[in-house]
Amino acid sequence: MFRGKIVDLLKFYDRYQDRANFLTVYILEAHAEDEWPLKINRLAGIAYKQPTSVEERRNGARLLMQRFGYRIPIALDGMDNRGEDLFAAWPERLYIVNPGGRILYKGKMGPFGFDPKEAEKVLAGELSLK
């Protein structure tokens, strides 16, 4: 996620956390050093290999929390990447799911289609119906 998108997502969370449940599922690394490295990640000191264990994936989630003050609850996708497969979430994607399990919003694939402001409009509309 781009830094600005994280800021937008955290603002969205702050506004609605008392009326909706939020969860980030930490999946595959988008730009792992051993698969699709980016020079900017190296310069920022956040370049590392694709995790091969739950502990390595957990460390990636911790880095997100520490580096960006990320405070949305985080779950880890299993090493079989089932969550990513089921939700076509790579490299990042936003979903809004109602309490009955119906998908109300499936955001476009990130990073360019990752739009917290668009998702917020959908959630705000859904909550206004109640």
Question: How would you characterize this protein structure?
Answer:
The protein is mainly alpha-helical and 130 residues long. The protein has a single domain, classed as Glutaredoxin (3-Layer(aba) Sandwich). It is 42% helix and 10% strand. It has helices spanning 3-16, 39-44, 54-68, 82-87, 116-128, and strands at 24-26, 74-76, 95-97, 103-106. A two-stranded parallel sheet has the order 1-2. A hairpin with a 5-residue loop joins β3 (95-97) and β4. It is globular, with a radius of gyration of 15 Å. The termini are far apart. The model has no long low-confidence stretch (mean pLDDT 90).
Characterize the biggest β-sheet.
Answer: 2 strands, parallel
- The helix-strand sequence is HEHHEHEEH
The CATH level-2 architecture is identified as 3-Layer(aba) Sandwich
Whole-number radius of gyration?
Answer: 15 Å
Overview in brief:
This protein has 130 residues and is mainly alpha-helical.
Per-chain topology:
Blueprint (H helix, E strand, L loop, with lengths): L2 H14 L7 E3 L12 H6 L9 H15 L5 E3 L5 H6 L7 E3 L5 E4 L9 H13 L2
Parallel strand pairs: 1-2
Antiparallel strand pairs: 3-4
